[in-house]
Amino acid sequence: MAITELTLLLLLAIAVGGALVHWSPLPLPILLVVLGVMASFLPGLDDIAVDPDLFLLLFIPPILFADAAVLPRRDFVSTLKPVLLLALGLVVLTVVTVGYVMHWLIPSMPLAVAFTLGAIVSPTDAVATVATTRLLPLPSRIVHIVNAESLLNDASGLVVFKLAVAAAATGLFSSQEVAGNFLNLAGGGVIVGIIVEWFGRGLRQRLISLHAADPVLLTLLSVLLPYGAYLAAEAVHVSGILAVVAAGLWASGQEVKGLTAEARKHAREVWLMLSYVLNGVVFLLLGLQLRRMVTGVDSYAPVDLMLYAIVLWVLLMTMRVTWVWVSAHLRFRLDWGWSGSKTGPEPKRLLLVSWAAVRGSITLATALSIPTAIAAGTPFPERDLVVFLAAATIILTLTFNGVPLPWLIRKLAIDTGEENLQEEHAARAEIARAAIAAVKLDARDLADPEDITFAEQLAHQYEGKLELLEGDPGHASQRATHIALRRRLRLAAINAERQCLHELHARDVINDESLRTVEEELDERELVSSIRVDRG
Predict the structure, then answer these.
(1) pTM to 2 decimal places
(2) In terms of CB atoms within 10 Å, which of 65, 173, 349, 442 comes out highest?
(3) Domain named Cation/H+ exchanger transmembrane: which ranges (predicted)?
């Protein structure tokens, strides 16, 4: 199938999946994978092959960058210890354990190849994890731990994978050399990512200072930034994925100075659309590839293949559950704590962190990037089996970890806490006081009675916000009712304006351009009028 038709078909499937998810018990990422698997049985879609290097370059950098950039830096730092234990410690443990166990279970699989398999299946998928948990009622600390882990272990897993493939190709393995190469690849990736983000932010800052930038240009540069970090890192032979994650984390909370409200709004809308489409394409391509990956092994009996896959999934889950629980209690004993509680780690929270172990796009791309041959043209040992086990791991984790995750979250009914809500309310109250002070200060120079009346009304509106946030609950509720009534009246007036506008256009009194211009203004007013009451 031509690339143009395939692209349009993928976009249509994303739109269909986005509509069906409202009636489906499956989260959107898993639903799209299912649609991709079903589509792989259609003529023309049964032989879709994706270049793994192209896949990693086109789709993964912007998705990981967007997820890393919205991860709160303060909360990331506060969860750094459990995140590093999962993203580094658990990855190393997984590679070593899977390597020895699968080599023992399948003697024909060399140890270096078994380590390669361990590196492929070790990272949880950042794309699937973030997309699955984004709209679910989870405590913020768990969200930050799971999301940060999945971002970092993608990079650590890929670094270990490169080293394992090199060992399988040469037959040589040195723990000291592997450790040194790991530090070079990982450390180099972090440095390159920070440098590229710093340079990109400086470039946009310079354009703003020269009055040579508009919202579209600034947004385009921000979209190109993760690609620049990835390509720069790969050019100097360090981890491109870790460079992208580092760039995103470094960009978090460091907004370019001088951006207009229009530029910020434009960037948010573009990134929202880009993330939605790229995430959808990734999961659909994952589904399209799975059937071919699973059916690509013909040298083993189906029963044996099923046994190997189940053993691998059980092994991965056993290691994860054990690691999470042991490390959490050990850190608590050392007075580090997991959730800030003095009574020790909460079992419900540990269970959620343990179960959020979906594998996805990174595992797919990594497995497909295994070379077909090593030195002197010798076929890569057991390549088809490794690819099959990687695909089976994706299917099993999506089925047994991803599908029940929303149900498990609701069943456990963990208190999500109100730290963020209280922090947000405190910030809104503080900025309302600042606005009142600014209005009263400027109002001292007003002479016209109408201007003075407007200033008093404006200050009164901000005082009403303070009453909603900090006032007596009874008075706040009454005021919220009044605000809702006034908002309903404003929306009714705007709807009448819009209806009249379209009638004028239908009668050819105004042209299309006038229609668009006025309707954009009505849309902006409607959005402002539709702000939730509890946000003032």
Answers:
(1) 0.80
(2) 65
(3) 12-410
